[in-house]
Amino acid sequence: MKAVGLKRYLPIEHEESFLDVEVSRPTPKGKDLLVKVHAISVNPVDTKQRAPKDKVEEEPRILGWDASGIVEEVGEDCTDYKIGDEVYYAGSITRSGSYSEYQLVDERIVGRKPSSLGFAKAAALPLTAITAWEALFERLGINAEAKSENEQKQLLIIGGAGGVGSIAIQLAKWAGLTVTATASREETSTWVQKMGADSVANHHESLVNQLHGEVDYILCLNNTDQHWDAMAEIIKPQGKICSIVENKEPLDLNVLKSKSATFVWEFMFTRAMYETPDMIQQQKLLDQVSQLIEEGHIQTTLTETLSPIEAKTIKEAHAKVESGKMIGKIVVEGF
Question: Distance from CA of residue 248 to its chain's centroid?
Answer without folding.
Answer: 21
